[in-house]
Fold this protein.
Amino acid sequence: MADYLVTGVGGFIGAAVAARLLAEGHSVVGVDNLTTGYAENIPAGTEFFQSDCQDAALYHRLPVRKYDAILHIAGQSSGEISFDDPVYDLRTNGESTLHLLKFALKVGCSRMVYASTMSVYGMHPDCPAKESDPCFPHSFYGVGKLASEHYLRLYEQYGVASAALRLFNVYGPGQNMSNLRQGMVSIFMAMMLADNHVHVKGSPDRYRDFVYIDDVVDAFMLCLHNREARGTFNIGGSGKVTVGELIDKMAALHPVRPEIRFEGRTAGDIPGIYADISRAGAELGYSPKVSLEQGLSRMYAWAARAMQK
């Protein structure tokens, strides 16, 4: 049995990762401030601490033990919302990483896996994004995440080996359906289920790469199993899919095709991006298993039940 520290344990991805660790018989210490995560999401058996990860006082409360790894998944996760309060975004996505790296040194933890984002790339030509491509983020969120990647790189010299997973558009059961400013699939699906209407901010020709939550959890586990894997790894799933194509696939699951309105734009938005996952495949053994059609079907069934409660 191994000991793990998981931040963002009340959120969509953090809860799913913690649940997998616990199912495999490991122990989990979890942290979440519960601003966008929920207490009911936290898997049973988690030793939970409610706090901001950028709060220095937290690190006097956490159990001092030699964790096998720290999985830093907490943080403000919307490019659009990052424009509301850039200082908070920097603290939750940058300062928190520095505190956790210092804590890793304090307790002798030599491994960190970080939830980064496709948003570090910014504008990108219509070809698969590679980890070696230039990064010019178009949101404060992307800037904070990219800064954290560099903090991880600098702490390598002190003995904290790290991997940063550049997650593309993650979706699936357990996603926050009430936050209509984060998560393209969850936003559109929530609107569709609420009143059979979808308001899209931007063109249907924009494109993204959608990756199912189970595949993302697999990527985290592969990083824990391969402690030699370091640096950045793209974690995508569907390949290039336009917004129009996504909506058509979602509408096919719904009894009546929703009314679609394309109007407005989102701060920091880009025309499109999709992942080259060859490095994750070669070095981690990562290969997405859930197709977009399968994932949307599973999420729709879950969301239809969840939104009736």
